[in-house]
Write a structure and sequence with these properties.
By secondary structure, the chain is of the alpha/beta class. The chain is built from 13 helices and 14 strands.
Length: 308
């Protein structure tokens, strides 16, 4: 059994290539829900949907989110009504949000809803939202405090982030099965996702870090930072904004208390010694997933490292 901690697009790309190499039923994906929000009265869970759509083979391959070939007629009509139109919800994608919202109104939890959506989309890997409790990732910026999606999508990540805040008014617990998945896994993978906005929220939940420290199974992370930059998303700018070094070494440092293996891009081979000095084994390879072959090669390297 493999447990994977995942955010959105980077994680989905990697997991898409991991799944064909293993028994898909042997994979449990713990998904960030700090990006969840309500729009037009609908519950959205973007990272869960990105993972489900990708593993179901229906994701938009260019954007990495939303449904392939979707249309945006509802969005245009909402715009006509003067409703917020900065978050691009496609017509087919909307079916998921309507269904999720209807299930919420019947009292189902995010875990139960994710399971219903997973079955409906024919995804075999187990997908767990990180928590069933309210949890929002906020950023404090030079323009004020805002929800992460507002910063990322509405304001195009142009503000300088001063602080990342995990807003949990009632205190969030890991969803059922999350701690068990980590404890029972033969290997744990931290996908190449934003360490502050995607993996950080999962690590902040009570017991998650302790379980990662306690497991005898190898815990492996793939660096989302290559050559001091992220390939997609604002992780590099966010790290710089809160005063962290923008480097793969810094990511390893954030995970060092539980990390056994760090997968570093060949561009950053010179950081190997510094990371090994943290007591972490380093694997240097090509981590840039810009062709199907390279994605599969990365998944193979990761599986080999976990099995060694
Ligand atoms: N990301 C964008 O940059 N712009 C969008 O309009 C947008 C819409 C969207 C709709 C559904 C969905 O599941 C994801 C969507 N995303 C969009 C991606 C998403 O908000 C982020 O990439 C992740 O939350 C970051 O992990």
């Amino acid at each position: 059994m493999i447990a994977a901690l995942a955010g959105g697009v980077g994680a989905a790309k990697f997991l898409e290539c991991l799944v064909p190499l293993i028994e898909p039923g042997d994979l449990t994906i713990v998904c960030n829900t700090g990006d969840d929000m309500t729009l037009w009265g609908l519950y959205l869970s973007p990272d869960v949907d990105i993972i489900l759509y990708t593993l179901a083979g229906i994701v938009d391959p260019v954007k990495g989110w939303g449904v392939r070939g979707d249309t945006f007629n509802t969005l245009a009509m909402m715009r006509q009504y003067g409703l917020p139109d900065w978050f691009n919800l496609g017509d087919r994608d909307l079916a998921t949000h309507i269904y999720r919202t209807a299930l919420r109104h019947t009292g189902k939890t995010p875990s139960e809803i994710t399971e219903t959506l997973r079955r409906g989309l024919g995804v075999i890997a187990r997908v767990l939202p990180m928590t069933d409790d309210p949890f929002e990732t906020h950023v404090l910026t030079d323009s004020g405090r805002m929800h992460f999606q507002e910063y990322l999508v509405q304001r195009r990540a142009l503000d300088t982030v001063q602080e990342v805040i995990y807003h949990t008014p009632l205190g969030a617990r890991p969803a059922p099965g999350v701690l068990e998945a980590i404890a029972q896994a033969d290997g744990v993978i931290l996908c190449p996702s934003n360490p502050l906005a995607s993996i950080g929220p999962i690590l902040s939940l009570a017991g998650v870090r302790d379980h990662l420290c306690a497991t005898p199974a190898p815990v492996l992370a793939i660096s989302p930072i290559v050559g001091g930059k992220t390939l997609k998303g604002p992780a590099d700018r966010m790290m710089a904004g809160i005063g962290l070094e923008t480097s793969a070494r810094q990511v390893a440092f954030l995970y060092q208390d539980f990390l056994d293996i760090f997968v570093l891009d060949q561009t950053d081979a010179d950081l190997q010694g510094d990371i090994e000095a943290l007591g972490v084994s380093v694997l240097v390879t090509d981590t840039i997933m810009n062709t199907p072959e390279k994605k599969t090669d990365l998944a193979k390297v990761v599986l080999r490292a976990l099995n060694d």
